[in-house]
Each structure stands twice: as C-alpha cells, then as structure tokens.
Design a protein that fits this description.
By secondary structure, the protein is an alpha/beta fold. The chain folds into 4 domains: about 150 residues, Resolvase, N-terminal catalytic domain (Rossmann fold), CATH 3.40.50.1390; about 120 residues, Putative Large Serine Recombinase, Chain B, Domain 2 (Hect, E3 ligase catalytic domain fold, Alpha-Beta Complex), CATH 3.90.1750.20; about 120 residues, no CATH class; about 60 residues. Helix content is about 40%, strand content about 20%. The protein is built from 16 helices and 17 strands. The strands form 6 sheets. Strands 2-1-3-4 form a 4-stranded parallel β-sheet, with helices on both faces. A 3-stranded mixed β-sheet has the order 9-15-16, with helices on one face. Helix 12 packs across helix 15. The two termini are about 30 Å apart. This is Recombinase family protein. Pfam families: Resolvase, Zn_ribbon_recom. InterPro entries: DNA_bind_recomb_sf, DNA_bind_recombinase_dom, Resolv_N, Resolvase-like_N_sf, SSR_resolvase, Zn_ribbon_recom_dom. Keywords: DNA recombination, DNA-binding.
Length: about 525
C-alpha cells in the first residue's frame, strides 16, 4: 500500500510547512500517527489523514516533527507500541515530541485496554493524545473525565476477562464434552448428529502413529521414524525427535482429557481425573491401553539416560558461541558409549559437527574470563526518562525576575531612588544571572539519561551467573567464534576463541526498561 500525492495535496503540504516555519522555537512538538488496515474507497487515505492532522497541528500551534505511518497494520492485533514506526517513536524517541495527533480513535487503537495503556503512558511521560474527530484531549476537562472512565472500565474488563477465562478452563477440564482448546495430535474437532462439537480421529495421524508404534516395537530409532514420516508427508517437515516422542507418549491417544504435567522439568501431559478418580474420556482411543503400554516400554528401551533438564536448555551461551567456519550456533551434544558419557560442542553445517569440542564447561569458563577482562569493569547503567518541565519552569522564573530587576534599575525605576536599593538590586540581579547561567540547557529538554546502577557488570554477572551474562551478551550483539584445529595423533582438537565485540558496546549494554512490559 502506497500513499499517492496529487499536485493539490503537495501544494497544500508546502503551504502548511511554510506556516509551520513561522512558529516560535518553543512551540509544542507534534507527532502524527497514521494507520490503515486496508485501503478501499470507503477508507480515509493516508494522504488525507496526514494533511488533516497537519491542519490540526497548525490550529493548535504545534510543529510537526515526524509522521509515524503504519499501513497494512491491524489496530486490533497490533497495539501502538508494537507497530514498526509508531513503536519506535514510543519506545526510543519519546523525548522528541509533546503530543500525538491521530485522525480518529479507531485509527489509533481498537481495544479499550490498549487505549488505557497509552493514556497511562502519556500521563507518566507528560505527553498529550489528541484525536481530530473524537473528543480526546488529555489537557481538557472532558478529556480528563474520559481518562478516568476509560481507566476504570479497562480495569474491570481485564479482571472480568481473566476470571471468565480461568473459570472456563477449569470447567472445561471436568467435562466429557469438548468445549475449548486445541485437540492433541491425532484428533480433530467435528460435529455429531445434534450439532455438538466432539473430537474425531484424524485418519492421517492415526496411520502415522500406528506406523511409528510398529517401528518402535521393532527397535527402530526415533530419528529413523522422523526421517520416514517427513519423507512420506504424514507429518510436517518441521517434525523433530522430541516432538514425535512427546506425541507418542501423550495419554490423550487413549482418548483421555489431559493437562500439562509441570513436575520433572520435561514437557509431558497427564490425564485429568474425574470425581470418581478415573481419567475423563473425551474422544475415541487411538491406542488401546495394551498398545500404549507396549509403545511406552519400547521407547523406554531406546531412551538415553539424559541428565535432568537444565533451565534454559542444555547449551549455555546459545546464540553467542558460533562456529568460525559455518557461522552456525554451537550446541551441546551428548554421546554415550562403553567408555562413558561425553559432552561435545558441535555446529550444524560442518562435517561431523566440525570436530566436536570436548568439555563445554571449560570453553564456557574461558569465555567468561575473556568477557570479564574486557567488560567486567563497565558500570551497569539503566536508561531512564528525564523530563525537563521543572527546569523549564525554573528558567522562566529566573528570566522573568531578571527582566523585572533590569527594568527597575533603568533611570527612573524604583531601585534607582537610593544608593542602597540600587546596590541591593544589582547584587540580586547578579545572583539571578549566575543561577541562570549555571543551568545546563540540556536539562531543560525531555531526554533519556543513563543512570549508574551502583555496580559493575562483574558484580552483576557474579550475582546472576552465566545465565545473566549469556542474556546480556546476546542482547548487545557480542559473539564468540570457536575454531577447532586438528592436532596430530590427538583425538581432541585444539580450541581457539575469538571474541567479537561491537564498537558501541558501552551504549548497547545500557539496560532499557520496557514501559509497555506489563501491558495486556
């Protein structure tokens, strides 16, 4: 979707810009927000929206400092802070504007909770929201009343929605009828003779699951099954061994209603028990109990005894450690043989994993040591929003006072009547001028400031461990290339680490708090 400007539109745009150039330096700064889902004959074009908003800005005495144009974007699905252009202004460039102007409320938001979030953010940041075709202006009495009403309704709606959803799921779990949710693999939703939603067996999935069971009973590996199922088209090309095993072990294949079993650190499902203590049946079974039990025993026989699942996955510094040759992520692989269990760091594209690097823990420790040498003494800084309104008020007070004293010190002024009053006034005037000169002009602007958190990154990472360091390194774009070199007559390769640090790493390390993290 592209905005088409006619000659008349461009002429009006130039006229509006000439009028804007005459505004004083301290004129309010306006950001224009333009949004459109689909351009049709009935919609207001992006060009019309922008021109109307520029006219509104002229009427309000505002200088347009930017246009956030998000086209082909649904306001229902994408809130303002997640849109490509408007989101960048809200999250990173908020000191640059004072007001957000939009053509109509539904061009800005379509969900009450999103509007409530934007109003709360605007009040916190000292911004104003103005709609051309709706009575929304946070500086007016009507606007303030509207804010109170919207905020109250949004809180009630959020609480009611949460209660309804929780209650519905709790109720649905106890019913034999299928009410809500996505069916487990092997089933699809259908309707019975009365029009009620029921679960039915998916023929393709039934065929794939029974074939996989036969292969498991023959001792074939899950990797072999995945290759065959993907090649046959019975399961999707994104199928993994873990997904296949999880599907085969799901008790939903017995026709039971299931829920996630959060104990044990693995993604497993368990049957939901009814009031009689027996599993609740919601569908015809794909496997009999004997078939399901024999399938589980066959999978157990081939299952490798893996250590307990570590939070965040087996590989540490995932996305930070890269193969120097193929540039793919280094991941931990476990090999079992008669001599024991071995852990290796391997890549994805090099032959044989690029000669796996043994002892991943030692590589982690070397990486930590290298990072601490370079970045350990950097201070932990948090980006905070600093408003200049109070400083601007102080500057105006001083300027008004200085103007008053200068006027009264002119011939005939009240401070020139006696020598004493003149000296006192001159002393006070010098003091006011000194206070005005001492104010840094930058502090009068709305701006981002980096505030020292009181600790270094060495201390921060000592408290948070490798997980905290890995998160920060990945966030700021620091990478470490791993080179493995074959050593004659030695099985394990020589490992060399090369730390890649962006030039602006100091600025990237600044922690940027998300104003919209708690938004619904």
């Amino acid at each position: 979707m592209e905005a088409e400007w006619t000659e008349a539109d461009l002429a009006l745009l130039e006229e509006l810009k000439r009028a804007e150039a005459l505004l004083p330096e301290d004129a309010p700064r306006a950001l224009l927000s333009i949004r459109l889902s689909v351009l049709t004959d009935e919609t207001t074009s992006p060009v019309r929206q922008e021109l109307d908003l520029r006219i509104l800005a002229r009427e309000r005495g505002c200088r347009v400092i930017g246009v956030a144009s998000d086209l082909n974007v649904s306001a229902t699905k994408v809130p303002p802070w997640k849109r490509k252009e408007l989101g960048d202004w809200l999250n990173n460039r908020s000191p640059e504007f004072d007001e957000i102007l939009f053509w109509k409320l539904d061009r800005f938001v379509r969900r009450l909770s999103d509007l409530s979030t934007m109003i709360e953010w605007s009040l916190k940041r000292g911004k104003n929201l103005v709609s051309k075709n709706d009575s929304l202006d946070l500086t007016t009495t009507a606007g303030k009343i509207m804010v109170t009403i919207i905020g109250g309704i949004a809180e009630i709606e959020a609480a009611n929605t949460s209660t309804r959803v929780t209650s519905l799921w709790d109720y649905a779990k106890t019913q034999e009828n299928w009410i809500i949710g996505k069916p487990a693999y092997g089933y699809v939703t259908s309707e019975d003779g009365t029009g009620k939603v029921v679960l039915a067996i998916d023929p393709e999935a039934h065929k794939a699951l029974h074939w996989a069971r036969r292969m498991a009973l023959r001792g074939r590996s899950a990797m072999f099954m995945v290759r065959c199922l993907k090649r046959s088209g019975l399961m999707s090309q994104g199928l993994t061994v873990a997904t296949l095993v999880r599907r085969l072990r799901n008790p939903a294949l017995l026709g039971y209603r299931v829920e996630e079993d959060k104990n044990g650190g693995q993604r497993r499902s368990k049957p939901v028990l009814g009031r009689d203590g027996r599993p609740i049946m919601v569908a015809p079974p794909i496997f009999s109990e004997e078939e399901f039990a024999s399938l589980g025993a066959a999978l157990d026989k081939r299952m490798k005894k893996q250590p307990p699942r570590r939070v965040g996955g087996l590989t540490q510094f995932l996305g930070v450690l890269l193969c120097a040759d193929c540039k793919t992520n280094m991941t931990v692989h476990i090999t079992d043989n008669v001599f024991g269990t071995y852990h290796y760091l391997r890549c994805r594209n090099c032959k044989s994993g690029g000669r796996g690097a043994p002892n991943p823990q030692s590589i982690y420790e070397r990486l930590v040591e290298d990072v601490l040498k370079v970045l350990g003494d950097f201070p932990v800084e948090v980006r905070q929003y600093a408003e200049g309104a109070e400083v601007r008020r102080e500057i105006k007070r001083l300027q008004d006072s200085i103007a008053l004293y200068m006027k009264e010190l002119e011939p005939g002024g009240r401070y020139t009547k006696t020598r004493f009053t003149k000296e006192q006034a001159e002393t006070t005037l010098d003091k006011l001028i000194g206070e005005l000169e001492a104010i840094d002009p930058e502090t009068a602007k709305d701006r981002w400031v980096n505030v020292h958190g009181g600790k270094t990154f060495r201390e921060h990472w000592q408290e948070g461990g490798m997980e905290a360091m890995a998160t920060d390194l990945y966030r700021v774009g620091i990478r470490c290339e791993v080179t493995r070199t074959k050593v004659p007559k030695v099985r394990a390769p020589k490992v060399h680490l090369r730390l890649l640090i962006p030039k602006d790493v100091r600025e990237r390390l600044v922690i940027r708090e998300d104003d919209f993290a708690q938004a619904l």
